[in-house]
Design goal:
The complex is a heterodimer of chains A (about 700) and B (about 220). Chain A has about 700 residues and is an alpha/beta fold. In chain B, the strands form 3 sheets. In chain B, strands 2-1-5-3-4 form a 5-stranded mixed beta sheet, with helices on both faces. A 3-stranded antiparallel beta sheet of chain B has the order 6-7-10. Classes of the chains: A alpha/beta (about 700), B alpha+beta (about 220).
Amino acid sequence: MSDARFDTTVTTTCGYCGVGCRLEAHARGGRIAAISPALDGPANLGHTCVKGRFAHQFTRSRDRLTAPLIKENGEFRVATWEEAIDRVARELLRIKAEHGPNAIAGLASSRATNEDCFVMSRLMRAAIGTNNIDNCSRVCHSPTSYALRKAFGLSGATGSFADIDRADAAILIGANPTAAHPVAGARIKQAALRGMQLVVIDPRRIELADYGVLHLAPRPGTNAAVMLGLAHVVQRDGLIDRAFIETRTEGFEAASALIEDYTPADVERISGVPAADIERAAHIYAEAGEACLIWGLGVTEHKYGSEVVQLICNLALMTGKVGRPGSALLPLRGQNNVQGSSDMGALPDTYSDYRPVSDEATARAFEEAWGVPLSREKGHTIPQMFDAAVAGDLKAMYIFGEDPAQTDPNTSHVIEALESLEFLVCQDIFETETTKHADVILPAAAFLEKQGTFTNAERRVQLVMPAIDPPGGAKTDFEILTTVSKALGHDMGYETPEDVLAEIAKLTPSFAGITYERLGRTGLQWPVAEDGTDSPILYRERFELPGGKARFATLPYRPPGSEPSEEFPLILVTGRRLEHYNAGTMTRRTANLELLPSEVLEIHPDDAERLWISDGDLVSVRSPYGRIEVEARVTDRIEPGNVFTAFHFPEVRTNLLIGPSADVNTSCPEYKVMAVDVRPVAEAPARRPALAAGD
Amino acid sequence: MTSVTINGRTVEVEPGTTILDAARAIGEWIPTLCFDERQDPFGACRVCMVGVEGAPAPLPACTTQVRDGMVVDTRDATARRVAGAVVELVLSELPEPPASHTELAAVARQLGVSGTRWPGTVHERDHDDRHPYLALRHELCISCGRCVRACDEVQGTFALTATGRGFDANVAAGLDQGFKDSACVSCGACADTCPTGAIAELSLLDLAPEPLHEVTT
């Protein structure tokens, strides 16, 4: 469509959430003038949201980093690229020589392209010589990846968003898609309006609960009990698919025996969900012809998050609802490329396609391609990196497109870690809480300014194309990382991001058939065979595990890492808001800030009245790890005993409250359950209605 | 499969396909105004009229399903005259011609409608710029219903309402309190589908080039 108002229009992929909307980015005078949805985008079908469509002015914000900065005597000064790269290379080589390669760690970003993540992992593995590389999927969906690989074999959704349109029922667990994945949320809502039986499991009455047939509000941290209860009813009432279990799965007997113990009455006692609702939800799911299981961080960001995902997989296996149209397991991946950053091997224990660093054949293939010896030893995960920094074992970090000082839990520990480092390089588009602690800051490009591919929540690899240039002296991540690598003595030999994709395809079986030409306008869902055939639905015939069979998990309910006490009587759940995105670095620099200018703490009217808190009061929230102040919002969308807030605003540093408790298998932090104490701030203005109510 | 002949070309389509979809599939152009492929066909504007052999009068292509052996003429003179008159009537309500990038301007150009022969009352200017991204220009609303249906069928927020009757028919965000204070989630689907710029992106209003044609009244 040519439109005289714009100089150019480029079709690209949204850089906000993991839905992967295809967008038309219209530019005029070197700036983004508007963004509209691509009508043929398979994930968005001509739709997009307040972030994807409108939140693009950040690209030309005055705050953009446009020149490298070097810290001297505690102050940043502008530097040339040559000077900055030289400083980075010299410091990293010095630390490597003095302390060995494992004293250095890198963070890739789930916001960056597949190519950037692949290049970043090569930088750490080949140029530095360590497997200390991780990415922010560690703190969101690593439990999903772990569990899906254990249960089915591959780390990705079993189907596609299109399966929602074909499902007769769906269970949505621990996700608030109308806020965090708005286009997927709209799709689920439309399906529910057409008659799909939607069951929502979430401690809050989220918007989609109003459109569903049933809302289960378990106590935070008791998802496992609810999933076991659903499985119990399915088994007790003869709703299992025996033929499927016999021919396509292993381990049912043990799981079945354990499930016996979780009667709806027991589950009600643990989770607070009425037994009758457990029964009804189980029947809705199991009796539907086709049904989807959709989940988000409300499942994963728990002490036993990876186990709950395995229990979700159990439910699908018991009923045979996997591997066919309309019956999909769809984890809603948080960031635009959470799927891809991990697929690409920006992880301490795996190369691309989740092949272990200890696997001799894989390591050899990469050694041959990169021309250097590679370590077979696992590297550090993000939390381990920070622990090692505090312990003095880790001396340098290269953090790219990530703001752990705002987004990671236990903020004071993270800051101590960053301060303990001898050398910190940050590569970002803005100064952040994290860059404050950097020695060198390298100015990078935003998603509208660069080329590559993102992989969305349905494993769809889609092209990203630049609509505008990076501002000032900022450069693309591809250019920066390859230049740094060369300065470290390892010339990667790529000229364009397309060269990187070609190497990824060569070294990664599930990317074998991927080329720019084949990706075209609508992308391809991995695994992509050499002839270009892609995979909208996995496991139609066999699971990707030895013997081709899926594995049941035998896992009991175990209580969360934090429970209410006399000192900390309420449970804080953290999450997201529609108008903002993650650390808010981008959305807070757009007019989205006018739509949602500040953060609130949601609290139930009963708790508010007891604590003499009125809507709009400033309250103090204290956990064993920290304290924040935030405005109260009294709402009955939250259960008594729970409070909720998000972490988009640095002025409310929510993650100060979160402790070190993490998923037992993947170290994904327990962001969703923290016992807190909430009380009015003394200096707050007089509280009107609550005074009367308290009398 | 159902066989249908459009402008002399015979094609096989799935039963239930509309004339509009069948025509578009073979690259035959039919003008539309209230149609958006993301929404269910509405059949309100009467701009997509086509001639169908044996039918006493032109039929709307967007809501008429093909029947086996149907013979369609998208260039039927009566149908085109009806479509042109509809567009002319629509234009007669507007205080100024639509901006050249809008779908209404494009349809008018394609139908050769360069103005309106019917002078008379036009909508009064009524602007609402309270939302940071979405601008309402009530005078440009032609009541095609696309924004309301986008909000309902694509987004599912039900924040827009068709208001008024006859000449006063228009659109309101919520109970007319504006986008920001309504249930609106600022997805912009309404601005995306609006064929006249009655709902537009605020930042693009400065970029709207001059109208392409003059209105003769």
